[in-house]
């Protein structure tokens, strides 16, 4: 296998992590909304955890994109 083609395959596989992060964020907010509709009084107490989960999930997506760019352009 040509090293350039292996680099493109590796970058494509690393970019899958950005899509997984998008799915994770959608799941996170969907579950929060479902829980908030079931028990509105507890929604305010869980909002901080929601934002923390969002930040961690987005950070993992950005790290995956960074790895894809590093594989692609180095």
From the N-terminal CA to the C-terminal CA, the straight-line distance is 18 Å
What CATH architecture label of the domain at 26-74 applies?
Up-down Bundle
> What is the highest CATH level, the class of the domain at 26-74?
Mainly Alpha
Helix-strand sequence = HH
Uncertain runs with pLDDT below 50, 5 residues or more? none
**Coarse structural class:** mainly alpha
- What is the CATH homologous superfamily assignment of the domain at 26-74? F1F0 ATP synthase subunit C
Number of strands: 0
Proportion in β-strands: under 5%
Describe the fold and architecture.
By secondary structure, this protein is mainly α. It has a domain at 26-74: F1F0 ATP synthase subunit C (F1FO ATP Synthase). 91% of the residues lie in helices and 0% in strands. The longest helix has 36 residues, at 3-38.
